[in-house]
């Protein structure tokens, strides 16, 4: 629904549409890769559950016209919360599938949801997916890759995965404080004692 009047989803269609959202997201390789590897932390699965809820709310509670760009922004922010970045157009594809599925459900057509129910889960494709990594995580990564000394990151050799650099500690951030504590900047910010 590209900016038109926002029609309400019939109550009978709500459970099917909610299931459809979950089915679409369960087939999104970038999202599943982030969850499997817990790139968003131990609560990565919970973040996906919240994304499903946010999408359903966006479609059902939004009083304004629905624009696909807004849905793409929700999907992009969810990936960022999982420390994941894609450059393969999958955000647009997922948003479009959700919009089309919503339109079908408005008309009482659940065929695309039925097809998703019957189709097997695809293998997770790893191309064009990037994980945001901290320096600590890079050191723990055992799979091969070239070390790029210039920007302090390690390029992972999993198809086309290329982590983007995260906030690097500044000299001030790593300087030892008077009480002997050192502040270390990472994805999970925490202090360590020398």
Automatic annotation (TrEMBL):
Q: Which UniProt keywords apply?
A: rRNA processing
Check the record and name the Pfam families matching this protein.
WGG
Domain of life of the native organism:
Eukaryota
Q: Does the keyword rRNA processing apply?
A: yes
Q: Where is this region: Disordered?
A: 124-194
Q: Name one GO biological process term.
A: rRNA processing
InterPro entries on file: Pre-rRNA_process_TSR2
In which residue ranges is the amino acid composition biased (Acidic residues)?
Answer: 134-146
- Protein family membership: Belongs to the TSR2 family.
The entry's protein name is Pre-rRNA-processing protein TSR2 homolog
């Amino acid at each position: 629904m590209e900016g038109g009047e926002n029609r309400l989803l019939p109550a009978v269609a709500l459970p099917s549409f909610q299931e459809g959202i979950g089915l679409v997201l369960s087939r999104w390789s970038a999202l599943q890769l982030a969850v499997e590897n817990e790139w968003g932390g131990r609560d990565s699965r919970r973040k996906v559950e919240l994304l499903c809820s946010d999408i359903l709310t966006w479609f059902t509670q939004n009083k304004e016209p629905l624009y696909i760009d807004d849905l793409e922004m929700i999907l992009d922010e969810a990936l960022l919360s999982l420390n994941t970045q894609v450059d393969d157009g999958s955000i647009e594809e997922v948003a479009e599938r959700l919009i089309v599925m919503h339109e079908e459900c408005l008309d009482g057509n659940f065929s695309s949801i039925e097809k998703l129910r019957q189709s097997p889960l695809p293998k997770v494709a790893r191309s064009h997916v990037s994980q945001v990594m901290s320096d600590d995580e890079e050191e723990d990564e055992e799979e091969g890759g070239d070390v790029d000394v210039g920007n302090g990151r390690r390029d992972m050799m999993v198809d086309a995965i290329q982590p983007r650099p995260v906030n690097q500690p500044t000299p001030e951030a790593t300087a030892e404080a008077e009480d002997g504590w050192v502040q270390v900047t990472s994805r999970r910010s925490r202090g360590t004692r020398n």
